[in-house]
Amino acid sequence: MGYADLEKTEKGFLVNLDDWNEDVAKEIAAAEDLHDLSDKHWDLIKFLRDEYVNNNGNQPNERNMVKAMADIWGEKPSTKDLYTLFPMQPSKQATKIAGLPETKRKGGY
């Protein structure tokens, strides 16, 4: 079953966390005009899913994403680097591609 067939909110976020898989993520990304997900895209997507699923529904802000990616990538990215990966706001766009509920947070910090 593809993204088009899955239950979504009016903004396109998946309703059921268990509907997500990497193929669905690629379809959501394509709908967001992100057609080639790099390893860095996947690192952030997987980090967000892990935080949500294994840390009581935690949805990190962009400052915490930068810190986590520094640990994973071995170099500290800037917030701008995250926006290069997810131009429509990392805390929202990456969350959407990760199949997580929309965050209600306003800003990155």
UniProtKB/TrEMBL annotation:
Belongs to the DsrC/TusE family. It comes from Magnetovibrio blakemorei. Pfam families: DsrC. One of its GO terms (molecular function) is sulfur carrier activity. It is found in: Cytoplasm. GO terms for cellular component: cytoplasm. Keywords: Cytoplasm. The keyword Transmembrane does not apply. Gene3D superfamilies: 3.30.1420.10, DsrC-like protein, C-terminal domain. InterPro entries: DsrC-like_C, DsrC-like_dom_sf, DsrC-like_N, DsrC/TusE. It comes from the Bacteria. Coiled coil: none annotated. GO terms for biological process: tRNA wobble position uridine thiolation. This is Sulfur relay protein DsrC.
